[in-house]
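Work Package 3 committed the consortium to producing structural models of liganded targets before the mid-term review. Because experimental data for this complex are still outstanding, the team generated a predictive model from sequence and the ligand definition alone, so that downstream docking and mutagenesis planning could proceed in parallel. The input record is reproduced below exactly as it was submitted to the modelling pipeline, together with the SMILES string for pyridoxal-5'-phosphate.
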Amino acid sequence: MRKSNYSEKFSITRFSPDPFLVIEYLLMARINTNYDKLSAGYLFPEIARRTNAFLEVNKGTQVLRLGIGDTTEPIASAVLDGLHQGVKNLGNAETYSGYGPSEGVLPLRQGLADLYGEHGVKLDPSEFFVSDGAKSDSANIQGIFSEDCVIAVQDPAYPVYVDSNVIAGRTGEATDSGYEGLVYMPCTEENGFFPELPSGKVDVIYICSPNNPTGAVATKEQLKKFVDYANAHKAVILFDSAYASFITDPELPRSIYEIDGAETCAIEMNSFSKTAGFTGVRLAWTIVPKTLMTEDSEAGKVHALWTRRQNTFFNGASNIVQAGGIAALSAKGREQTNAQVGFYLENARIINDGLKSLGITTYGGGNAPYVWLKTPGGLTSWEFFDKLLNECHVVGTPGSGFGPAGEGFFRLSAFGHRENVEKAVESIKDNLKI
Ligand SMILES: *Cc1c(COP(=O)(O)O)cnc(C)c1O
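The resulting structure, written out as tokens with the ligand in place, is given here.
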């Protein structure tokens, strides 16, 4: 009876002039048209398209890829032992585990809290939310903030901060100078690739340090200004520290919680991806302090919201992988993963030295796995991409793909086998016509 009622309604709604039935029609499934606003997602497919077109014409040429931010070296033995142990545990009734806490197992959360403790940061394990990625966390975190929050991003930036807010409907259309409604904070040579404070009031501020793509690391003084702004304006900083382990300078902060006052205004995201070669394994964490406040909420509320969000939408990171994460935090694991980070930093040094010997201006690389170079001769980022590919057979990433202020810059990634990195640098030195 009910069913036939529904199908009757369905068949007439499309054609009926009755206004009530027209409303029924409007309530049918529609897509989220915010996706149509997205201009990004264009960057890496376009790199692939141009590279393939080059290879089509130059069959058999070896192309050297310094484009993508993905680890290349095998997982360290102490960490592998942890992963193996995680697998073994599943094969035994006494150690088997199914669903765990969605926030992650306590030994891992404790291990992470201890890691921060080494830098004088006091956080409780319950403030750590273990997850399967800092990319998904940084995309999802906006969901606990009001739809009408004004969002500020560094320009250039890791694309997910912008895209997740576009999809959530916090922006207008894409224009040549970025999305309408977003506050872009330019990171330029003049400001050392760390932005000035926003001139008006913004509500949510994304900061990534060490930065992808510029390789710049914010100093304590630079972060302090933003922390003070956020506390004064009841704004929230979303701090992505995925590359913190690449910081070698002891003066530079590895966590925003090294800054006084950050515990009331900042959420931090970090990951095992780049530190332990877990880009394919998947393990990360987000810190939401219980002291965090917003304009309309007291301490504890945002922590409770993220707890609720994770419990509702997420069933926890893999137990095998969490065992690997615990091993990565062990003394042996730390020693081995630090050595690997050092290996990538040496790649960055090789890239930097090679470019500088040609008189190219470079930034980054010292405390980050990215070298950010100024395109020689005033070329646009994509013109330089084509030049580097055609003359040197090297693939990198055009800076303009990360935001309007990235125009005229280019990112080279230090993730790669040493032999490849050396070949790429030699080829640039021998073949780049500038
Ligand atoms: C690689 C990267 C991450 C890590 O993301 P995962 O999802 O944990 O692999 C986060 N932020 C930035 C800026 C990155 O470059």
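Reviewers should note the following from the model. The longest helix spans residues 331-357. These observations will guide the Year 2 experiments.
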